[in-house]
Amino acid sequence: MTITHKALVLPEKLGKFIVADFPREAPGHGEILIKVQSAALNPVDWKIQKWDVLIDGYPAVLGSDIAGDVEEVGEGVTEFKKGDRVFGQAEFKKSRGAFQQYVVSSASTTSKIPPKYTYDEASTLPMALTTAYSGLYSKTGNGFGIEAPLTDSAVGKYAGIPIVILGGSSSVGQFTIQLAKLSGFSPIITTASVKNSDSLKTFGATHVLDRNLSADALREEISKITSKPIQYVYDSISFGPTQQIAFDILSPGGRVVYVLQPTVTATEDKQINFAFAALSTPHNAEIMPLFYHDHVYRFLENGWITPNRVEALPNGLAGAIEGLQRLEADQVSRLKLVARPQETA
Q1: Each residue of 256-308: pLDDT tens digit?
Q2: Of the candidates 34, 22, 123, which has an alpha carbon nearest to the alpha carbon of residue 77?
Q3: Cα–Cα distance for residue pair 203/132, rounded to 1 Å
Q4: What distance, in Å, lies between the first and last C-alpha atoms of the chain?
Q5: CA 60 to CA 135: how far, in whole Å?
Q6: pTM above 0.90, yes or no
Q7: Which residues contact 138 (CB under 8 A, 6 or more apart)?
């Protein structure tokens, strides 16, 4: 007998979302079944719907950010038990998106939620945090290839080295700022709407510059802040002109990270990297289980990273449809929209 639950389903290629019954999977070896309490929305969700990318077939359940309760553990899982509050990143598989009432996830890339955080808050973390962490610490080609701050000796290792983060108000940008601070980078220069200066400085940015500055103007402002070469630029937007600006402000010998497919061409003296959040990619498979399974709880508990601001959507999974339309229309700034699958009628 097939057990079903409610899910936000994309029934066909380039189709429209509907709330429908969907088969509930059982966890396999090394997996857990999560009762999803909160599922945050990401721009990639509407892009998959519009462009038919990243998904392995239809009907499909999208959504990347999961927070909820362990419902069942699979064979070999000893670190989790039924009722544990957990969060993690969903897989780009048609049956394993976050926008459903129950989802199977790998135990190795799941973390418990510290008591001080809600399900909604925890759901704002996974995909953006994975992207930020991967871009900073995965091997070159996908990230800067620097040492992650997982040991006492690695915390603060890059003290005195400047970093520029374009798009500091984005979810990825906020986590990149926080991780860069933990790694010791200074100054931490970011671009954003000036109205967000104070909040970004609480995350660790030392200087917030107007996001509308041209490459020449931005380079001039940076030169007033530091005389050191800019060897690290993280473009957390990577859309429109930002890729070229990021490349132009990079000093010879430097490294730039993009979160979308690069549209500029590397030169002999400037290295280009593409941070992709999928946990199944080889570069993320090397580093993300260790981070999520063994360290991210401590990062949260110590306040080294903090969740994004939240707007909870009404009407359970149905509310995610309008939320995705708002994301596509660029009507969401410095917060995460969160659907609550268990509130689905």
Answers
A1: 999 999 999 999 999 999 999 999 899 999 999 999 999 999 999 999 999 99
A2: 34
A3: 14
A4: 23
A5: 28
A6: yes
A7: 145, 275, 283, 284, 286, 287
